[in-house]
Amino acid sequence: MYECIAVASQKGGVGKTTTTVNLAASLVEMGKRVLVVDLDPQGGLTLASGHEPDALEKSVYDGLMKDEPLENLVLTTGFGADLIPSNVDLALAEIELVNAFARERRLAALLAPVRDAYDTIIIDCQPSLGLLTLNALAVADGVLIPVACEYLAMRAVKGILTFVKKVQAQANSQLKVIGLLPTMFDKRTRHAQETFDALKKTFEPKVRVIGTIVYRSIRFAESAASGESILTYAGSVPGAEAYRELAKALIRGEL
């Protein structure tokens, strides 16, 4: 079981936040203590957790750049995990980190006091490969890469894998690629299956393509809008079971 997982891709709209919420909810359902970290200035994870980003008094930005203690930042969520929230203030951190001391270790320093309080920490990264994502990969021991089953998303995989290799070489030699998680798989189209087959052909065996497929469903958007996980909002849809299976595989050490 990974102590800290970064959910990362420079491609937007591939299911990073959806994966963070529903993997966390699945782990909580199985009795694990989970902290989720919103490391995207758009605050999607914060919103999906039932909080309004613009109404926050303090966010992860204050922890990273103003040394605000973590206990002053943590909020609860509707799916049982604790949350370090984000809002547009975090966009400033990308600029301010450039000249900051130990700039790639700021998130590690923020999380260090609570690592033992949780079974796992899941970081929802922004869709870019800048200093915020570097901070996430520098503290994580595993990176999970959601890939929407469409051609353009697949092309982005090479970019994130190159970035991960640089982080492994220069900042975190313990970082492992958990695998590529196929998301938004539309069973009605041949293109989705062709993309999945191309993923396996292109990246395996060096990088695992996780066999658990997250099928496209409008229920994911509806559950996020209601501040719930898919498990409680529509627990019978295939996507809910996919995240449960992913959580089980992580707990069993199969990934």
Question: What distinguishing features does this structure have?
Answer:
single chain, 255 residues
SSE diagram, text form:
Elements: E1 4-7, H1 16-29, E2 34-39, H2 44-48, H3 60-65, E3 75-76, E4 82-84, H4 90-96, H5 106-111, E5 120-125, H6 131-139, E6 142-148, H7 151-170, E7 176-183, H8 190-203, H9 218-225, H10 230-233, H11 238-251
Summary?
42% of the residues lie in helices and 14% in strands. The protein is of the alpha/beta class and 255 residues long. The longest helix has 20 residues.
Description of the structure:
- This protein is α/β, with parallel strands linked by helices and 255 residues long.
- Helices cover 42% and strands 14% of the residues.
- The chain is built from 11 helices and 7 strands.
- It has helices at 16-29, 44-48, 60-65, 90-96, 106-111, 131-139, 151-170, 190-203, 218-225, 230-233, 238-251, and strands at residues 4-7, 34-39, 75-76, 82-84, 120-125, 142-148, 176-183.
- It has a 7-stranded mixed β-sheet, with helices on both faces.
- The mean pLDDT is 95.
Helix content: 40-55%
Low-confidence stretches at least 5 residues in length (pLDDT < 50)? none
Read across the widest sheet, the strand sequence of neighbours is 3-4-2-5-1-6-7
Structural class by secondary-structure content: alpha/beta
Main sheet properties: 7 strands, mixed
The averaged pLDDT comes out at: 95
Give me the count of strands.
Answer: 7
> In percent terms, what proportion of residues is strand?
5-15%
Number of alpha- plus pi-helical segments: 11
- Shape descriptor reads globular
- Which series of helices and strands comes N to C? EHEHHEEHHEHEHEHHHH
Gyration radius, rounded:
17 Å
Q: Alpha-carbon distance between the termini?
A: 9 Å
